[in-house]
Amino acid sequence: MTILISGAGIAGLTLALTCRQIGMPCRIVEQVREVKPLGVGINLQPNAVRELIDLGLEAELSAIGVPTQELAMFAANGREVWREPRGLAAGYRWPQYSVHRGELQMLLYRAVLERLGPDAIETGVKGLSHRTEGEEAVLETERGERRGALLIAADGLHSAIRRRMHPDEGPPIWAGAILWRGASRIARFSENNMMAMIGDYDQKFVTYPIGGPDSEGRSLINWIAERRFEAGHGWAREDWSRVVPASEFAHWFESWRFGWIDVTAIIAAAPAVYEYPMVDRDPLPFWTQGRVTLMGDAAHIMYPTGSNGASQAIVDARRLGRAFLDHGPTPAALADYEAEMRPRMAKVIAANRGAGPDYVLEIVKQRTGGVFDDVEAVMPLKERQDFAANYKRTAGFSIDALNAQPPLIGEHERRA
Question: How far is CA 291 from each of CA 4, 11, 169, rounded to the nearest angstrom?
Fold first, then answer.
């Protein structure tokens, strides 16, 4: 009956907590010897926050997260293009949170150890190969075989299980953009916990608070600077720990001072800057082989355009839990999960490549060359509203639909 989970990231830990909730035995194997907080800021959309609250993590989440109240987009000349409320302010029944990815991972990690016990996660176990053997899934590791009724690959962008399932896929696909990410402790640029997006397709700056004000009134502000390059520019392998000096890119943003925000000051205040190429992968023709399936980034790594990576991983975990309740720890559960989630994620991957929520900035640039006074004359409000609503529907967090949707897993549902 045991569900074997490969990977102790956000996806795998959420699945373990879900298994505990529904009374399904599980075990996580993780290749690193010590689980440590990685990354910088991320956003959790209301559909994912709902699932974490249903796991009984509301108080812990509110302690580390900043409830996002507003999203605003600005052209590279500083003029406003779009503004909308977010989370509770938009009418959702659940908030949207901006959090430090590492803090969220450690919150989930502690919850797993507390609820499932200290032996629930086995670290330092690197998977070598996998197979289905009768009614068991087998993960062969450097330390022997690990067996379960099912094997769930939550092992991230460079998933070993995905690579063996799709050996001819090749490396991740580079979009031509480099991301520089950091977190700076400075005075807030907005009182409304705003997420701000500035720029266009060629160069962009995204920022939002991920920590409350300290005794000096300064907040921890997450930011991402992005710039596109020619295909021959090249890029380093994806690595969240690749530290670079801000001088490598800050000069491209030195004129981005708009009164209400000073981009150069935000960049300069970061104690460390991490460089990362923007990559994704094409949607797969299948996620499941026998008693093995993929989830989270292992299944559907996508551009960070719509703030969906971690949110979709959490929803994956909960949707798998629903399938376990309906079908038990069987291949039928994996087929049920994949039938719904794989086509949906293919649409999100495609949307993030071309028509993510911030693509309105590029539309305005294409229509004006970046010079305009009144955005209404360039892109009428109705067109901007429709664009935003269409993305929410694609990504699964349309306000009315999500508010009316019954819970994936009821409060007292358990597998017999």
Answer: 10, 18, 21
> Does 258 have pLDDT greater than 80?
yes
The pLDDT score that the predictor gives to residue 240 is 55
What is the spatial distance between Cα 301 and Cα 410, in angstroms, rounded to a whole number?
29
If you count them, how many residues does the chain have? 416
Find where tokens 């050996």 sit.
167
Q: How far, rounded to the nearest angstrom, does the alpha carbon of residue 296 sit from its chain's CA centroid?
A: 9
Q: What is the pLDDT of residues 307-316, one digit of tens each?
A: 788 999 999 9
DSSP tag of 236 = P
Residue type, 390: N
pLDDT at 238 over 90: no
Residue 47: C-alpha distances to residues 86, 320, 392 (Å): 12, 15, 11
Predicted local distance difference test score (pLDDT) of residue 352: 86
Q: What pLDDT score does 357 carry?
A: 81
CA–CA distance, 45 with 94 (Å, rounded to integer): 9
Q: Computed from CA positions of residues 36, 109, 87, 347, in that sequence, does the dihedral angle turn out positive or negative?
A: positive
**220 and 256 Cβ atoms separated by less than 8 Å:** no
Edge-first strand order for the sheet with 136-141 is: 127-133, 136-141, 144-148
3-state secondary structure of 93: coil
Q: Give the C-alpha distances (Å, rounded to integers) separating 24 from 56, 78, 416.
A: 17, 52, 9
Taking the C-alpha atoms of residue 405 and residue 38, their distance in angstroms, rounded to an integer, is: 33
The closest alpha carbon to 274, from 312, 226, 202, 213, belongs to 226
The pLDDT, as a whole number, for residue 234 is 65
Q: How far apart are CA 153 and CA 161, in angstroms?
A: 6
Reply yes or no on whether the pLDDT at 231 is more than 90: no
The answer to whether 170 and 185 are in contact (CB under 8 A) is no
> Is the Cβ–Cβ distance between 317 and 14 less than 8 Å?
yes
How far is CA 330 from each of CA 44, 137, 246, 410, 415, rounded to the nearest angstrom?
30, 10, 50, 21, 13
The residue with tokens 């266009």 is 200
Tokens of 110: 């502690």
Spatial CB neighbours of 148, under 8 Å, sequence gap ≥ 6: 2, 3, 4, 26, 27, 136, 137, 139, 329
pLDDT of residue 368: 94
Amino acid identity of 308?
N
The Cα–Cα gap between 326 and 335 comes to: 12
